[in-house]
Sequence to fold (119 residues):
Amino acid sequence: MAVWRDDGAADLCAADELAEMDARPFELERNGARYPLLAVRTGDDIHVYHNACPHIGVPLHWGTEGMMNLQGTHLICSTHGAQFRAGDGYCIIGPCKGQSLGKVPSRIEDGRVIAELQP
Fold:
């Protein structure tokens, strides 16, 4: 479960909980503002994005559906099928082709995925 830290950053999960090309949604709230995020692992890197398709702003996943395409190679929006490169969030197929998911600055600290969110 993602939690806010005293320094204002968000502790999303243990880095080793994300397998290669595994993506996971996170939902945080602070002062009435919602922060839907997703984290995805590519090799040794973990990328954090706002979980909102640039096409119409909906989360990439719907219910318990996964966030990766059937081949496990790209993030996919379950609403209209837009596909995004995991490493940079760039849309390669779909109604928002050429746009990107919003990148969230993040780091691995003591084995945890930490997201730096702007209030």
Notes: The chain has one domain: 3-115. The radius of gyration is 14 Å.
